Inverse folding.
C-alpha cells in the first residue's frame, strides 16, 4: 500500500512540474494580413502617391515574402512592380525599412555585403507592416522621384489600416 502511495505521489509531482524547453509544442501560431487588408493597404498607398502627383507601383507581401497584391498605376515605369516587390521583400526579410537598410549597407559599412543578397534592394520605399509587435507583412513602393517619397507613401498607407491591425 505504501509502495502504491509513493508511486502515485511521485507521478503527481512529475505531472505537475513545468514543461521543459525540450517539450516545446510541435506547432506555432502567427498572424498574417487578410487579402482584403492587403488590398486596402495597397490602394491607400497608391492613392497617396497619386495625390502627390506620382505614378507608382505598390506591392504588399505576407510575413514570408510572398506577394499578396501588386498595383501599378497606368504611367508607372515598367520596372516598378518588380522593384516594389523587392523592396517589400527586403523590408520583411531584414525586419527593417529599406531607407534604414540603405544607410546601414553603404559601401565601406560593416553590413555592406548584405547588398549582394539575391533580391535584396536597398532603396527607400520598403516598410515592414507590424501588428502587436510582430511583422505581419511588408509593403514596397516604386516610381516616385526618390526613395524618400516612396517611403512616405508606404507609411501613409500603413497608417490608413492601423485600426485593422490592432488586436
Amino acid at each position: 500500500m505504501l509502495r502504491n502511495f509513493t508511486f502515485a505521489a511521485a507521478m503527481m509531482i512529475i505531472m505537475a512540474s513545468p514543461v521543459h524547453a525540450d517539450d516545446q509544442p510541435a506547432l506555432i501560431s502567427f498572424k498574417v494580413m487578410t487579402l482584403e487588408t492587403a488590398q486596402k493597404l495597397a490602394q491607400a498607398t497608391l492613392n497617396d502617391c497619386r495625390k502627390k502627383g506620382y505614378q507608382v507601383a505598390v506591392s504588399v507581401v505576407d510575413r514570408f515574402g510572398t506577394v499578396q497584391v501588386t498595383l501599378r498605376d497606368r504611367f508607372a515605369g515598367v520596372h516598378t512592380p518588380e522593384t516594389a516587390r523587392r523592396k517589400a521583400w527586403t523590408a520583411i526579410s531584414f525586419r527593417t525599412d529599406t531607407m534604414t537598410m540603405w544607410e546601414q549597407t553603404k559601401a565601406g559599412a560593416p553590413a555592406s555585403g548584405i547588398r549582394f543578397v539575391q533580391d535584396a534592394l536597398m532603396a527607400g520605399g520598403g516598410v515592414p507592416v507590424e501588428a502587436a509587435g510582430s511583422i505581419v507583412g511588408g509593403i514596397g513602393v516604386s516610381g516616385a522621384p526618390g526613395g524618400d517619397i516612396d517611403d512616405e507613401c508606404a507609411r501613409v498607407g500603413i497608417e490608413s489600416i492601423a485600426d485593422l491591425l490592432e488586436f
User: Anything to note?
Assistant: Residues 31-165 form a domain with the Beta-Lactamase fold (CATH 3.30.450.150). The chain has one domain: 31-165.
